[in-house]
Structures are given as structure tokens and as C-alpha cells.
């Protein structure tokens, strides 16, 4: 094409289209607009464009449904998908239909310009667009920026078999991420086999992975297929890989290098055709430095690192997760419940060190123990207290809790005892009152009997909203 690169912008929201058009034209691009799916497809058929920037939801239908056919007759037109449907399925469908990138709304215009420039420099792919994947169960819940970044990484793993190493704290959902990678990939119709390395006795690790022949060791009364054999053609998920013994690491490395293995006690050499996804809540580089994990195995597994965010890093997803778990509770035969806005705000302010798993258990416990059809602030607060007591907290009330804290803290206190204790008491007090008042600082200050400006200063000191 001669002149400035030509972009087709397909966006049904006039205000959004105007802003994007102005930004692109300011960067030197020529921009044509389409407000419907039909108009987009007709314009692609009638003129040549360097790049298509398209929304997904249009008044006349889903933009994905006709995208493959519309692009089939273009001459290497790159695609950027922008959408407010910020789900993993959207990211995967965008990738499968040959898009250069997917940007969830709202996005930064600078990010769009950088992505546009990168797409312009990419060589046009000669491959035909892949078929749209079938819809399936939603494994991952969340629309916050950390989850959008995760979805984009998963989508880029869909059409390859590269090894993946998933990192994240316990309870963040690393196995769900592994399943999402498997289900979005080319091996989706083949087995997904998961094994937790921390749960296997040291002496049985190789047998579990590679199988064993009858009589291979004491108690081996029959020939048993290992996890590699069970996962043939599919995906093998090695959870808590950091807990694998060093000798088993050596055997695993040999299999990854050669693609071959033999069952314990056997001489038959088998070819392995599996995708390896590993995960650990520990820092594998630290384990390598300590001599507890093979460096060469780490590099074999860490081809594509994937980081799963902690729940406290995506608090905006907590409401959706709570609703999802309450539906799941009904499927398990528990009573149908709802949750008040004030109670939800209180839940969102917690740190959740056990992450999504802890939140799930909390919601189920609430469904069983909370009175009435709606969770209120008092219900939530009572369960937080119960959880603290069950984990070893003092059950004799505030006096006992303070006495226990002082017994541990006072000997090392150096003039900060009063401020430290006050800070420990203030935070839960403010969280409770803000939860009771729905986050209204004026009403919270009145209930506390302090000035609103004083409350705002104290909230800022505790990093509370």
C-alpha cells in the first residue's frame, strides 16, 4: 500500500471510536470506521487494510463469528481485538482467530499505539486462521488487570507445546491455570493428568511417574502404568515440582531430553508424547542456589514462566468469585444465599493469605453457618473471629488477645509499645465500622465519635480506603 498505513477500526461505541480514531490519526495512520459487524466485513472485502482493530460485541452479532471468513480474502491484514468481555475465552478466541494481540477494555491509548506499531512491523502470516474453539466450562474467574495479563499469556500458549512453569502462592489456582492451558491447546481432547510431587513418598516417585513392572520392588504385585503413560498424547501437570527428590529430578531431566523412558524394573524403552506443565509455590531459582533443585532441569521446565497473582493483588475479582462459589455451594446441596454490599466490602478488604482456596472455603462455611438468606457484616465478622480462634488465637476475648500479644511483644519493645498496640487495634476497628456503614467515612466517624479528618488520616496510615 502507498502512503500512510491504513487501519479499519470496527467499534460500535461512537465515543470510544472517536477517541481511538483521533489517537491513531495523531500517530500518522489513516483510519476508516465501521459501526457494525456487517459493515466491518463488507469494508474488509471491498478495500485493502494493513490492520483491523475490532470490538467483539456489535448490534448485529458477535464479531468473532464471521471474523475468520472476513479475513480469509484479505492480503495479510493483521488484527487487534479490543473488548469489554474480559474473560479467558475472549483472549483464547482472539488468539485462535489469528489476532496479533488482544486488549481488554478499558486500555491505555499508549498501549494501543505501541501494539499497533508492533503489529505493523510483523510479517503477515500465510497461515489460515484457526477454527474457533468450542465453548467450555469457565475455569478461571476474574476481570482485573492481573487476570487479563494472565489470560493473554494463556492464549499465546494455545498453539504450541512449549514447557510451562507456573509460579504463585498456595491457593491461587495453579492447577486451574494448567487445565486452562491444556483445554485451550491442541491436546484438549487428550488426557490431562495431574500429580502432586509433595504427596508422593520419596521411594515411589519414579514408579508413579514412569510405572513399574510386576515384581520390580516389594509390593509390586502387578504391572502398573505411570503418569507419563496415562498422559500419552495429552498434558502432564507436575505440581509442587520443587519437592521432587534430586535423584528423581535426574531421571525426569533424562526423559525430557531424550523423549524416552522405561518403567521401573523393565527394559522396554517407550517414547513419550506429552506436554509438560510444572508448578511450584516455592522459588525454584532459590532452590537451585541452595543445591536442592537441578539448574539444568529448571531451564528445561522454565521455557514459558507464568505467574498467577495472589488474591490480594486482584481484590476487584473477589465479588465475582464469591458469587461463583455461592452458586457452587448450591450445587453441593447447601442453602441458597446472597451477600450484602457492606459485607462484601469487608471481605474485599481482607488479605486472604490462603488466596482463592481460602475464600472458597470461607464462602462454603458461611453458607452453612450464617443465619438468614443474606450474609451481613456481623455474619462475616463472626466467621473471621471463628477462623482466628480455630487457628490458635486466644478465645477469651479482647483482654486475653492483648495479654498474649504483650507477652510476645513487650520484652523487645523500645518505646513503641503504645503505638504498635494502637495500630493493631485500630485497623480491625476501622474495617468493621466501615463495613457497617458501607464505606461511608462520615457515618463511620460519627459512630466512632471522632472527627472525619482524624479518621481519614488514620485510614491513610493503615492503607485503608
Automatic annotation (TrEMBL):
Mind telling me which CDD domains this protein's record contains? AAA (cd00009)
Biological process, per Gene Ontology:
phosphorelay signal transduction system; regulation of DNA-templated transcription
Q: What stretches pass through the bilayer?
A: none
Entry-linked PROSITE patterns = RESPONSE_REGULATORY, SIGMA54_INTERACT_1, SIGMA54_INTERACT_2, SIGMA54_INTERACT_3, SIGMA54_INTERACT_4
Question: What molecular function terms (GO) are annotated for this protein?
Answer: ATP binding; sequence-specific DNA binding
Q: Which residues form the Response regulatory domain?
A: 6-120
PTM annotation (4-aspartylphosphate): residues: 55
Instruction: Determine the domain of life of the protein's source.
Output: Bacteria
Its Gene Ontology cellular component terms are: cytoplasm
Q: What does this protein do?
A: Member of the two-component regulatory system NtrB/NtrC, which controls expression of the nitrogen-regulated (ntr) genes in response to nitrogen limitation. Phosphorylated NtrC binds directly to DNA and stimulates the formation of open promoter-sigma54-RNA polymerase complexes.
Q: What is this protein called?
A: DNA-binding transcriptional regulator NtrC
Its source organism is Flavisphingopyxis soli
Ranked from the top, the taxonomy reads:
Bacteria, Pseudomonadati, Pseudomonadota, Alphaproteobacteria, Sphingomonadales
Amino acid at each position: 500500500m502507498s502512503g500512510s498505513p491504513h487501519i479499519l477500526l470496527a467499534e460500535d461505541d461512537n465515543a470510544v471510536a472517536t477517541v481511538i480514531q483521533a489517537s491513531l490519526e495523531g500517530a500518522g495512520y489513516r483510519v476508516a470506521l465501521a459501526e457494525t459487524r456487517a459493515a466491518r466485513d463488507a469494508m474488509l472485502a471491498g478495500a485493502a487494510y494493513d490492520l483491523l482493530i475490532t470490538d467483539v460485541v456489535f448490534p448485529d452479532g458477535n464479531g468473532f463469528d464471521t471474523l475468520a471468513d472476513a479475513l480469509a480474502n484479505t492480503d495479510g491484514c493483521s488484527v487487534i481485538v479490543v473488548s469489554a468481555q474480559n474473560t479467558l475465552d475472549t483472549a483464547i478466541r482472539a488468539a485462535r482467530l489469528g489476532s496479533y494481540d488482544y486488549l481488554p477494555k478499558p486500555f491505555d491509548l499508549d498501549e494501543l499505539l505501541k501494539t499497533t506499531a508492533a503489529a505493523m512491523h510483523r510479517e503477515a502470516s500465510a497461515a489460515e486462521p484457526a477454527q474457533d474453539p468450542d465453548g467450555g466450562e469457565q475455569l478461571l474467574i476474574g476481570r482485573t488487570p492481573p487476570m487479563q495479563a494472565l489470560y493473554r499469556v494463556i492464549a499465546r500458549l494455545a498453539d504450541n507445546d512449549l514447557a510451562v512453569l507456573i509460579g504463585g502462592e498456595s491457593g491461587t489456582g495453579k492447577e486451574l491455570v494448567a487445565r486452562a492451558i491444556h483445554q485451550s491447546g491442541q491436546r484438549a481432547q487428550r488426557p490431562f493428568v495431574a500429580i502432586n510431587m509433595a504427596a508422593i513418598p520419596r521411594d515411589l516417585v519414579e514408579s508413579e511417574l514412569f510405572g513399574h513392572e510386576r515384581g520390580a520392588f516389594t509390593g509390586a504385585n502387578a504391572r502398573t502404568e505411570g503418569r507419563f503413560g496415562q498422559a500419552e498424547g495429552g498434558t502432564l501437570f507436575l505440581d509442587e515440582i520443587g519437592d521432587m527428590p534430586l535423584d528423581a529430578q535426574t531421571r525426569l531431566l533424562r526423559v525430557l531430553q531424550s523423549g524416552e523412558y522405561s518403567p521401573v524394573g523393565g527394559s522396554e524403552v517407550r517414547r513419550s508424547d506429552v506436554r509438560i506443565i510444572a508448578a511450584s509455590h516455592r522459588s525454584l531459582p532459590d532452590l537451585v542456589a541452595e543445591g536442592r533443585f537441578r539448574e539444568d532441569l529448571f531451564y528445561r521446565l522454565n521455557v514459558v514462566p507464568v505467574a498467577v497473582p495472589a488474591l490480594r493483588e486482584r481484590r476487584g475479582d473477589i465479588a465475582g468469585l464469591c458469587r461463583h462459589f455461592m452458586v457452587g455451594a448450591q450445587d453441593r446441596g447447601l442453602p441458597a444465599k446472597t451477600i450484602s454490599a457492606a459485607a462484601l466490602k469487608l471481605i474485599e478488604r481482607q488479605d486472604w493469605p490462603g488466596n482463592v482456596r481460602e475464600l472458597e472455603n470461607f464462602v462454603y462455611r458461611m453458607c452453612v453457618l450464617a443465619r438468614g438468606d443474606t450474609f451481613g457484616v456481623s455474619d462475616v465478622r463472626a466467621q473471621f473471629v471463628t477462623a482466628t480462634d480455630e487457628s490458635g488465637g486466644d478465645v477469651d476475648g479482647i483482654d486475653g488477645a492483648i495479654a498474649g500479644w504483650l507477652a510476645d511483644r513487650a520484652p523487645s519493645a523500645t518505646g513503641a509499645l503504645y503505638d504498635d498496640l494502637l495500630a493493631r487495634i485500630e485497623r480491625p476497628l476501622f474495617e468493621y465500622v466501615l463495613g457497617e456503614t458501607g464505606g461511608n467515612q462520615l457515618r463511620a466517624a460519627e459512630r466512632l465519635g471522632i472527627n472525619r479528618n482524624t479518621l481519614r488520616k488514620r485510614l491513610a496510615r493503615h492503607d485503608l480506603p
